[in-house]
Amino acid sequence: MKRQTFLRTSTLGLAAMAFGGRSWAVESITKNTDNHRLGAAWRRVVAGTSSAQDFVGVLALDWHSQKVRVQTEHAVPSRAHGVLAEVGGGFLVVAARPGMWLRRLSADGEVLQHLDIQKDSAGRTLDGHIMASADGQWLYTPETSLVTGEGWISVRDVRTLARQAEWRTHGRDPHQCLIDASGALLLANGGIPRTSDGKKTNLDQMNSSLVRLDGRSGELLGQWRLNDHRLSLRHMAWSVASTANQPLLGIALQAEHDDAAQRRAAPVLAVWDGIKLNIPSRDMMAGGYAGDIAPGPGGGFVLSGQRVGKGVLWHPDAPEQLFPIAELKDMCALATPAATAQEGVLMGSERGIGYWHPRKDPRMMLWPTAMTLDNHWVVLS
């Protein structure tokens, strides 16, 4: 197919690259691009069968030779979702809702631990995410009671993964959680009522919220809601703060309105500044669903409009707008190669991995085999 690469320039003066088509030119790849290792989860058809299997493992990216290599992969009992990088190059991966397992992999991608939560959290399911405490001694896992539908946080020993305490999330359908500068826990209650097998039900009773909990006791320190109760708060990322501003918490939204047109027209980003939770942009470009969110340049955020195949940039200097930066079919997983968010964004899509940077040429590599990446991945040290 003909290469289709085009350049957009935003009012911020950022060069925004977008990709399309089946093949991509490689002549513009810079020689000093670092290679990357990613902890990820994916699904693919097992050779010689017609059955799809879920895997977790390590993907090795070599931008110079234009190759993606599956360094390790391990079959898992169900779909995986959230991934958390650990010191030393390893990572943790959590089963998607309604999940029952948690797994730790080493820096070389081998399985170190596997936990079935029914052994210490009977009657609960994992909700697909995990976060470490500020001191690195504990792990927080959002969970749901199969009996009441209430959200819980299990506090787990970082070494054994065993549950040591439990806290209420003051909501239902808890999703991603992050730590703030004080060590407090920020958690998105998705608010969607679900059956015991995770299916949505009674959406008119949705009640999504952002909560802030004490990272040592679980005490509720604050709770925030949006005016539109059909917007579910899901995935989160901290912006990279400038010297003049504090970091913002960006929250990706999932519209659950009954009317399809209303869902497609819904906003995809909420921003919390430590005081207020608001929707800065009503731009409809991302189709009412953001699959993932990552810090972007200039204190902004990059979001993946998975259902419309678009990557968009939000910037605090133009808060009412979204800027298109990529067009990739079924793009979702996002990751920044460096903590500063000045090294661009890695984007997972149906056909492969895209790389966007506001001041560099776009790049793309195809998967080594047909595979479907899950919502999230992390860059490993």
Would you mind describing this structure in some detail?
- The protein has 381 residues and is mainly β.
- The protein has two domains: 1-75 and 226-381, Neuraminidase (6 Propeller), CATH 2.120.10; 81-104 and 115-200, no CATH class.
- The protein has one helix and 31 strands.
- The protein has one helix at residues 260-264; strands spanning 6-9, 15-18, 36-45, 52-62, 67-75, 80-85, 91-95, 101-105, 111-116, 124-126, 131-132, 138-145, 150-157, 163-172, 174-179, 185-189, 209-213, 220-224, 231-238, 249-255, 269-272, 277-278, 293-295, 301-305, 310-314, 323-327, 334-335, 345-348, 352-356, 363-366, 372-379.
- The strands form eight sheets. Strands 10, 11, 12, 13 and 14 form a five-stranded antiparallel β-sheet that branches. The chain has a four-stranded antiparallel β-sheet with strand order 5-4-3-31, with no helix packed on it.
- The two termini are 36 Å apart.
Key words describing this protein structure:
mainly beta, 4-stranded antiparallel β-sheet, 46% strand, 31 strands, 1 helix, 381 residues
Helicity, as a percent range = under 10%
Query: Which structural class do you get from the secondary structure elements?
Result: mainly beta
Radius of gyration based on Cα positions: 20 Å
CATH class bucket of the largest domain = Mainly Beta
Number of helices: 1
User: Average pLDDT value?
Assistant: 89
Question: What proportion strand?
Answer: over 45%
Contiguous low-pLDDT stretches (5 residues minimum) are 1-32
N-to-C span: 36 Å
How many distinct beta strands? 31
CATH T-level fold name of the largest domain: Neuraminidase
Count of domains: 2
So, CATH architecture of the largest domain?
6 Propeller
The description of the largest β-sheet is: 5 strands, antiparallel
Shape: globular
